[in-house]
Amino acid sequence: MAGKWLSLVDDAAAPWLPRSVLAPAIVRHDFRRLRTVAAVSLTALPIIPLALTLALPVSAALPAGAALWASASLLAAAAAISGGRAEPIVAEVEVAPAPGLPDLDTAYDLFAGLVTVHDIRGHVRSVHGRDAREYLKLMRDPQGRGFIEQIHVSDRIAFLRAIDSLRLDSERTAVDIRLERTSADGPQFAHFYCEMTPLRDAEGNLLAIVAQSRDVSEGARLQAEAAARAAHAESANDAKTRFLAAVSHELRTPLNAILGFSDVLAGEYFGKLENDRQREYVSLIHQSGTHLLSVVNTMLDMSKIEAGRYELLREPFRVAEAIAACEAMLSHQAREKGVRLASRVTRSVGEINADQRAVQQILINLVGNAIKFTDRGGLVTVDAAREGALLKLTVSDTGIGIAADKLKMLGQPFVQIQNDYTRRYEGTGLGLSLVKGLAELHGGDVSIRSAEGEGTEVVVSIPCDVSSIAGAECARVPVTVEFPPRLTLRGDGKSDVGEPAVVEALRKGEMGREGGHGTAQAKTA
């Protein structure tokens, strides 16, 4: 009879015990305790209702007693399983190492960091590691549940899940945890990287877990600082972009009024100006307003490019006509400066499919800068030629040039190379940055080479043939531009870089010769 009773208890308890992940000794221990609880519960079954009849009617005492008996039995069974696996059970699963195995505790003492050996519930059985003594000075005793209790509350779930994964035949796992450490300012949490390896018996049952924890607080602090700095920089950059856009919009309205009224005064629509000084002042007002409007428009375009809101209007146009329009706009400036302005477009260029306004803006900025920094008697040239599927726009000058150590500064917004020559000329340092942004929007790039005292050559390369199906599809895809775009330095970037051949040819008056890309058409201003 007793054997049948024990078999019945074992069959009822078996589905609730995780026998596949627990050591056999612990399973046997849990069965013994459940048998004891079952025997005590059956003994108490008639006693509890009879005791309640002393205070309650029989009709109420019997169901209340049955409910109380069932609750007490379940609580006793749960307490028997969870509270019974104490240190004596751990000692029972500490099997002797197999013959030939080294003393693992000695090996653990050589490991870096803090090495803790845990039982299958995560409780610490022993502490090792080369840095254990240093770590333990700042920690409470990690034995038993001490280690888990020192883990940050929000990290304990991840730690226990890692243990569960090892119970389910996982070979190895790792988890980031924060451990409480004492300091002069009170308890603080340090970041640890914990690698966990299971120890199993011959049958694959989990016996223990070896965890190697290393302090990574410094790395975590540096990562947090880097993330905070990146977020701050992004926020500042967004604020700068919004500021430029807002200022540009606010300035354009009064500037348009200034230019409009100065045009009215210069045209003498409402009466004659009395003397030449008045006409000179009106002209200066118009010139200054035009210059300021140009700066505002450049700032607005740059803010659009940086925010990714600059939209290209791709359409076919003739490159020669775009260059001629730029020459017409800048020829007066070149004549006043005493600089020759020449262009050469090979016949093979023809039409390209791009944003004509953006291409003209690129040319105006480059040619305007070249004229500005070229002395009287100098030469500025614009060349256009096809190289495969690319249009190469080359702007060369015989001006002051740029020192090799200054080239890397070019292209940064609001940065202008400072020397005795540039201080005489106004400028915002936005021109080349805008040129590169517009070129990159087209999927092209900008390269520059210069020799101080000899001249500068800037080459803009943009795709010119998007008539194919693939090219047309690419044209519809929004382009993301790195801002400020990187500048490509041609050659070795040293000051001994040779002057472009076209400039040398123009100096010798060989404007009518045929270029390498076809017959050259030359214009001079």
Automatic annotation (TrEMBL):
InterPro entries: HATPase_C_sf (IPR036890), HATPase_dom (IPR003594), His_kinase_dom (IPR005467), HisK_dim/P_dom (IPR003661), HisK_dim/P_sf (IPR036097), PAS-assoc_C (IPR000700), Sensor_HK_Regulatory (IPR050736), Sig_transdc_His_kin-like_C (IPR004358). CDD domains: HATPase_EvgS-ArcB-TorS-like, HisKA. The chain crosses the membrane at residues 37-56. Residues 246-466 form the Histidine kinase domain. Residues 173-228 form the PAC domain. GO terms for molecular function: kinase activity. It catalyses: ATP + protein L-histidine = ADP + protein N-phospho-L-histidine. Keywords: Kinase, Membrane, Phosphoprotein, Transferase, Transmembrane, Transmembrane helix, Two-component regulatory system. Residues 506-516 have a biased composition (Basic and acidic residues). Its EC number is 2.7.13.3. SUPFAM superfamilies: ATPase domain of HSP90 chaperone/DNA topoisomerase II/histidine kinase, Homodimeric domain of signal transducing histidine kinase. It is an enzyme of class 2 (transferase). Residues 506-525 are annotated as: Disordered. Pfam families: HATPase_c, HisKA. Signal peptide: none annotated. This is histidine kinase. It comes from Sinorhizobium medicae. The lineage of its organism: Bacteria, Pseudomonadati, Pseudomonadota, Alphaproteobacteria, Hyphomicrobiales.
